[in-house]
Structures are given as C-alpha cells and as structure tokens.
Design a protein that fits this description.
disordered N terminus; 275 residues; mainly alpha; 12 helices
Length: 275
Amino acid sequence: MSNLSESHCVTCNSVFSGAYCHACGEKARRDPPTLARFAAEMLAELLDADGRIVKTLKLLVFRPGRLTVEYVSGRRKPYLGPAAVFVLMNVLFFFVQPLANVNTFHATLHSQTNWYPYSDWAEDLVATRLEVTGLDREAYAREFDGASERNARTLIFLQIPLLAIGIMLINFRKRRYFVEHLVFATHFFAALLLLSVVASFGIYIYWILKPGFTFDLEIPFIVITTGYLLLASREVYDDNWIMASLKAVLQISAFLVVIHFFRLVLFLVTYWTVV
C-alpha cells in the first residue's frame, strides 16, 4: 500500500515518472505540512511573477481593457477569470476600506438623507419610522450604517449588468455580444475597487503623518476613472481618440447613474431590514 501511494499521484492517480506528475503537475514527494512551508507556498503563489494573480493585476492596472481583449479572444489560462478578479478585489476592498473610510459604494444614513436626488424622500421615511417607533436617531444611524455596509458587499454585484447594458447601448454600432460588454464592465469595477484600495492605504498612511487632514476625492476619482475608460475603450472597441473620449464621458455618466441607482436600492434594502 505504501509503495502504491508513493508511486502514484495523489491527485489524478497517474504513475509518477519523475519529480512531478506528467498528467497534472502534482509533486511526486509530499513533505509533511508545516506552518513555514504553508506560508512560503502561499506567498509564492500570490507573488510569483509568473502567477495568474500578478499577471492579471498587471494588465488590469497598466493595460486598461487588455484583460477584456484577452478573455474575449480565448486566451484565458494565464489570468484570473472576470468573476474571480472582481471577487478578489471586492473582498480586499471591504477589508481595507475601514482604514480610511473611502465610501466608494457604501452609503451612511447621513449621506443617504442629505446628498442624493432622493434624499428628501429618504429623510421623510426615516423621520416617520423614528416617530412611530420612538427610536433614537443616533442609535438608529449606527445600526443602519452597519447594515448598509454589509448589504453593500452583496448588492455591489447588481451594478455590473446595469453598467454593461449602458456600455452596450453606447457601443451598439460595434455589434458585440452582451457578454463582452459584461466582461468589460466586470473588469472596470475590479479596477475601480483596486483604485479604492490604493486610495484607502494612501489616505491611512497620510493620516498617520498628518492627523486630521481631510480629502475630497470626488473630482480626482471621476478624472481617473474617465481616463481609465478612455484607454480601455480604445483597447476593447478599437476606437480613435476622439470617439474613445466621447464614449468615456458617456460611460462615466452611465456609471454615475448606476451608482445612484445602487445607493437607492441599498437604502431601500437597509431601511426595510433595520427596524
């Protein structure tokens, strides 16, 4: 029994003919797992220059739109799939976001009742609930904000198909399949989440050096995302600079509409789940 296990691959049961399985690449020798070996293997997989994560992030950051082109053309093995890279960035964002409170998607009760076109209506709903239930507004706001942050992690996926529809309408002359626009939108949101992660780290470090300093990120955020969409449109849809610039403006406008709709849905879901 021992000889069989040592001569056969534990993953696919093929016979070993060297240090690695010829069928699946599994190692022929499996050393007893230790914490140090586990940490080393995990770090190597994440940071290996030839690893899928690193290759994916390189294209996502430095070649806007290229990851979409690679996926649509069928060259997918070297990179994470669109859903995988989005989930990875989503988890990373909501883990890092509390450091600097960069609310790219999450919305507090204060912002929901003050900053958006529907805020007056939202304030009326909240005021009525507080009056009927006798709840303290400050306590209600704390509970609402916590629930809103949790709900945002789930509802964030809603934005991708909505933006994809907008992108499809903007590029209707290209006659592409909807899934291509969906992949483009998924990669855009992944890049946006990564940008938010970097911004959170940067602000957190700056706060350590200069406590109390405040940032207004709205305009830089719009400028950077518009520039990203400009470069991505040229890459994916083969547009010239003028057409790509026009589409970038239209796409960022569609994105802002989607964001406002998302925050409205987020408010309603949170409002009805927090009593």
